[in-house]
Amino acid sequence: AVEVAIVEMPDPNVEPEKIFTQASVALLHAGKSDAPYVFFTPDMEEQLLRSDVIERELRSLLETPTSEHPGRLWVEYQPIVDLKTNQVVYFEALTRMHLPGLGRIPPPEFIEIAEGQQLAIQLGEWVLCESCNFLRQLQQQGFSHVYVSINISAADLLHSGFVERITRLVEQHKIPPHIINLEITESMMMYGFDAANAVLQDLRTRGFRIAIDDFGTGYSSFARLEDLNVDIIKIDKSFVDKILTAEPHRLVIGDLVRMCHRLGMEVVAEGVEEERQRLYLVEQGCDLMQGYLFSKPIEPTQALELLAAEECAGASS
Ligand code: C2E
Ligand code: CA
Ligand code: CA
After folding, report:
1. Using 50, 70 and 90 to split pLDDT, how confident is the model at 156?
2. 79 lines ligand 1 (CB under 6 A)
3. Is 153 in the pocket of ligand 1 (CB under 6 A)?
4. Which among 136, 174, 216, 264 counts the fewest CB atoms within 10 Å?
């Protein structure tokens, strides 16, 4: 396809190099839009500079031990709770980045940059190591029944050698794979259903549990649900939001839960914020929930405190 960048020149004395630079910046954006041409705007340059800073910082943060840069790149853990017992069953590991001058960088932004700059594998290994350290703390404090769920980038999953790499890493940390869930999004299956599904089967054979994240938003897996080599379905927040607004007969969550249960899969509802949603999910037989109603993502020490408090409450009741 032809891509055209247009640079407007209100000042006739502008230097030619500047025009070329601006045209190249606009061309980088042209690839992201459907239009055949794109006009240069100053915020394109700003965006590019911001991405550059994030990339550079991320690269250097990943190369230095985490303890040397507290508060810059870290992992928080969000509890996922059993809807029947109200107990924490596992935590989702969610990466956080904070840069001086730029503040908090939203995860989708730095993850997209990592994927575009061949940093996805390194970031994935870092999150896995952090999560293994957290799992070891959980085990040392007697919470060995609690799992951790880790998000996997498409670029990482489909990279050759992923299965061997992740298996070796958890072995090095002496963590059994069966307490690790790997979350992959539906859209990853789009790159080649059979090839991706074979990787998932390989991972399951090695003991990892597989979850489909943001279910219902991407490439339609509804039709191929029974062919998917997965253990857990995470229903996207957009469906959970509808509990509050849509007429009951229009809600598909109940049907989805029954279908998943028939296939032996566990169902998690994402983004649960209100009690009314929780009650509906319990009524529909959904297994687990995740959301601000129970807890936001928290630091490891808070997570351990939460489990300890839960245990105390259990012992006294
Ligand atoms: P996700 O995997 O769907 O993670 C759930 C997101 O929903 C998290 O956003 C979480 O903070 C947020 N959330 C949880 N409960 C609620 C709720 O009740 N209400 C609302 N409004 N939001 C809720 P976060 O941490 O900003 O992460 C965004 C996305 O970035 C994640 O979506 C995931 O796709 C990606 N991500 C985060 N950390 C990692 C990572 O370490 N590796 C990879 N590959 N992706 C990551
Ligand atoms: Ca996730
Ligand atoms: Ca999700």
Report:
1. confident
2. no
3. yes
4. 264
Does position 250 have pLDDT exceeding 90, yes or no? no
From ligand 3's centre to the CA of 232, what distance in Å? Answer: 12
pLDDT of residue 220 exceeding 70: no
Distance CA 33, CA 155 (A): 21
CA distance linking residue 163 with residue 183, whole number of Å: 14
Atom 24 of ligand 1 has which residue's CA nearest to it?
Answer: 107
The type of residue at 165 is: R
Q: Spell out the SS3 assignment of the chain.
A: CCCEEECCCCCCCCCHHHHHHHHHHHHHHHCCCCCCEEECCHHHHHHHHHHHHHHHHHHHHHHCCHHHCCCCEEEEEEEEEECCCCCEEEEEEEEEEEECCCEEECHHHHHHHHHHCCCHHHHHHHHHHHHHHHHHHHHHCCCCCCEEEEECCHHHHCCCCHHHHHHHHHHHCCCCHHHEEEEEEHHHHHHCHHHHHHHHHHHHHCCCEEEEEEECCCCCCCCCHHHCCCCEEEECHHHHHHCCCCCHHHCCHHHHHHHHHHCCCEEEECCCCCHHHHHHHHHCCCCEECCCCCCCCECHHHHHHHHHHHHHHHHHC
Ligand 1 atom closest to Cα of residue 273: 18
Per-residue pLDDT reduced to its tens digit, 16-41: 888 888 888 888 777 777 788 888 88
Q: Is the CB of 151 under 6 A from ligand 1?
A: yes
Give CA–CA dist 99/54, Å, rounded.
Answer: 8
b/e code 114-151 from CB counts within 10 Å (16+ = b): bbebebbbbbbebbbbbbbebbeebbeeebeebbbbbb
Mean pLDDT of the chain: 92
State which ligand 1 atom lies nearest to the alpha carbon of 120: 44
